[in-house]
Amino acid sequence: MTASQKSGGTSIILNNEELSACWSCGSMRAAHFCSSCGKVQPPLPADYFSFFGLPRKLDIDTAALEREFYQLSRKLHPDLYARSSTQEQGWILEKSAQLNDAYRTLKDPIARTEYLLKLEGVQLQEQSKNATDQARATGAVKKQVVPPELLEEVFELNLQLEEARMNRMSGEVDEDLAHQLQQTKRHLQQKFDLLFQELRGYWAEWDGLVAHAEGGEDTSDARRKVCDKMVALLNRRSYIRNLVRDVNEVLEG
Amino acid sequence: MSDERVVGIDLGTTNSLVAFMQGNEPVVIPGEDGSSLVPSVVALDSAGQIIVGSPARKHLIETPERAVYSVKRLMGRGVEDIQEELKLFPFRLAEDLQPGEVLRIKLGDKDFTPPEISAFILRQLRRNAERYFGAPVRKAVITVPAYFNDAQRQATKDAGRIAGLEVLRLVNEPTAASLAYGLDKKKNGIIAVYDLGGGTFDISILKLHDGIFEVIATNGDTHLGGDDIDNLLISIALDDIQGDLGVDVRRNAGVVQAIRKAVIEAKIRLSSEPEATLDVELPAGKKYQRTISREQFIQLAEPIFQRTVAPCKQALKDAGLRPEQIEEVVLVGGSTRIPRVRQLVEELFQRVPHSELNPDEVVALGAAVQANILAGGSEATEEMLLLDVTPLSLGIEALGGVVAKIIQRNSTIPASATEHFTTGVDGQTNVAIHVLQGERELAADCRSLARFDLKGIPPMPAGLPRIEVRFLIDANGILNVAAREQRSGKEAQIAVQPSYGLTDDQVESMILDSFDNAEEDFRRRQVIEARNDADTILSALAKGRSGPGWQQLTADERKRVEKLEKALRAVMEGDEYAAIRKAIDALNQGTMHLAELMMDEAVSSALKGKTFEQVEVGEGPSAPHPFAPAEFKTER
């Protein structure tokens, strides 16, 4: 993604001060529909958490999120407004897109974490496949931060990959090498899975700080530290993912 | 309200259908010939009349240069993407076609774009529906292959508009089929829909949850279907003919079409018989005969069947499911009648697939269900909601010709993405954006959707403008784009250059042409129908006048009836529909008493010497209100 999200803290949380009167009946309205006349309200630039009325916490009950998604879909899907005015149809299109975007992002643990980090104004180091390919194609030197604990393994792996590629070009088959690569891949896969456990630990730290902040405590320093840890973890994660992909490419030809 | 009636249309490669929701049941509307299938064949006869459906089929053999079939394969495509099709299908392109222009297909001495040809089919379906309802039809839901890209969807929507239809929604064919299947089963669970039609293949995996039909993943091939099997058999037959008989009939379009007809018939027979014989008359009194066994057929077509496997596996992978987690598999499309296809599906999903609903009709039935939902719903559909996905990732071309994905495939639609762009040179006032669809890494390998030119950016140092572009895929799977320069707050203009497609102006002029005609057609038909009704009532009246009932009327009554009769005769030759209808209604009212007397007479004379059950009223009046037209049984 090349999208640079709005910088930290500027996202709008839906609260009563920011809600204007209903366009149709003029009385006070709730977020999506007027609480008085039930008419759909224009979309507001809400962040994904507030769209679902959730605090910015990371450990989400995804089953409850799915229920809420279905419930809101029953109210916000364009199918239900096929006979409404063009203006209302336009709003509903925006709102249902927001709903789907929000659900898609929040239900996925990694996308959710990345999204929160962006909301907090953190620029993620791009280790994605897209960024890698883009760098490859443009010849730009992409900064690849090798996670220190992987340095030795990565060095070894790159040699093996190089050898395997050469073998393939010359049509040679090296069973031993393939076996070693398989083993490395399994090892990387294990590391990859373990990272998720680690991430859950940071979620707990983060969610605790959010709770403290709600109590009026200044947690900004501590929050930044957790963010940094999550960023480092995500970078390590995508680094490993790319390695696994490279191994797969070589193994599968 | 009759003009609010929304019909569901399956615009297929081989056949098209129109259906609607009658009470709680979706039903297919038959054409004048009583058949629910309208073959997707369009011909231009020597008198310059457009002919659609079964009557057009004979033109394929007799005047192949004036007929076209499988035009769906060309929807939303450019001349460079159809080179393969041109080898296999007798599409005749207009000679003056410019690169980048929308395709035009020659029918006789005229040429038409694929959306226009599809619009002829849609208009025929619309007519069938109007004939059935006795009222105009203006709104429709049209189905498209789930794997159709933006351009193919836009072309289908254009076809609807050209046919004078407001397309309320494009629904994916497998999803529509699941609606038809899910109607009576209030079930929760994961289902797969395997849809192998005449020209397209789709696989969709859905999660059913209390009436919500949520598509989790979809995949497919928009150029894979029964056509491919036909073409394979045709090319084998052509080789045979050249080898055995020493004649090359490849350039004889009429003979090729006769061979095509024969291989299709053989293919169909092989689904129920162990063997089938091809028997085609060739020029100069020669004959081509060959018997194909089912084993041979399977062996030949297996590579085509196998092409459906990878999309199924990819869809499962995208859904994060193993085959055994799929609870039910539904078969859709005529090609799923082939026993080997069923077997393959069973192997893939380890489950006996469902095929209770007619695989030719199920998509149209589902479209009718969705049409009903959009029209406000009914008891049968009130809990039902469709959450579909975009089949292909949306991306923009970034530096070095790579694609940066902004909306991933299988995202629930509507879906959106906001991207920011800036300038690279001081004072630059426009930025070009290339939007693509597809899964490949390089722009050159993806489908180009459009090039946008963001214009009117206020001159600023390079990198300073901040242009926000919002990409939104709507519930039809069609992309909408809006842009804004944030620093100046100015709405940036977007000049959309669709890579393959008609401009709004082009569609608009096509609409006007055919819309006028459609209105005119409908009005003319109404008048003809009213005249027929007038004839019916007048001949019934003539009959009544010669019977004893007439004498039982008072002189006043008789005079009144004669006056009304005269009034009807005076207007019925004119073309004022309302006037004819009004005169018919008046005469109907005026002859109410006469009808009752005739009824009594008929009953009592018939009863003489007969038991009650044997009573036959014969051709005469059979109801107290005998002259009312018997059509339009549906609720208004």
Summarize the structure.
The complex is a heterodimer of chains A (253) and B (636). Chain A is mainly α and 253 residues long.
What does this protein look like?
The complex is a heterodimer of chains A (253) and B (636). Chain A is an all-alpha fold. Chain A is 61% helix and 0% strand. Chain A is built from eight helices and no strands. Chain A has helices at 48-51, 62-76, 86-107, 109-119, 129-138, 151-170, 175-214, 220-252. The radius of gyration of chain A is 23 Å and the shape is elongated. Chain A starts with 47 loop residues before the first helix and ends with a helix. Chain B has 636 residues and is of the alpha+beta class. Chain B has 16 helices and 26 strands. In chain B, the strands form seven sheets. In chain B, strands 1, 2, 3, 4, 10 and 11 form a six-stranded mixed sheet that branches. In chain B, helix 4 (150-162) crosses helix 12 (504-545), helix 6 packs across helix 7 and helix 14 runs antiparallel to helix 15 (577-590). The longest helix of chain B is centred in the last third of the chain and has 42 residues, at 504-545.
Give the helices and strands, then pairings.
The complex is a heterodimer of chains A (253) and B (636).
Chain A: H1 48-51, H2 62-76, H3 86-107, H4 109-119, H5 129-138, H6 151-170, H7 175-214, H8 220-252
Helix pairs in contact in A: 2-3, 3-4, 4-8, 6-7, 6-8, 7-8
Chain B: E1 6-11, E2 15-22, E3 25-28, E4 38-39, E5 41-44, E6 50-52, H1 54-62, E7 67-69, H2 83-88, E8 105-107, E9 110-112, H3 114-133, E10 139-144, H4 150-162, E11 166-172, H5 173-182, E12 189-196, E13 201-209, E14 212-221, H6 226-245, H7 253-269, E15 275-281, E16 287-293, H8 294-306, H9 309-319, E17 328-332, H10 339-349, H11 362-374, E18 385-387, E19 394-397, E20 403-407, E21 415-421, E22 431-437, E23 447-455, E24 467-473, E25 479-485, E26 493-498, H12 504-545, H13 548-552, H14 555-572, H15 577-590, H16 592-607
Parallel strand pairs in B: 1-10, 10-11, 12-17, 14-18
Antiparallel strand pairs in B: 1-2, 2-3, 2-4, 5-6, 5-7, 8-9, 12-13, 13-14, 15-16, 19-20, 19-22, 21-24, 22-23, 23-26, 24-25
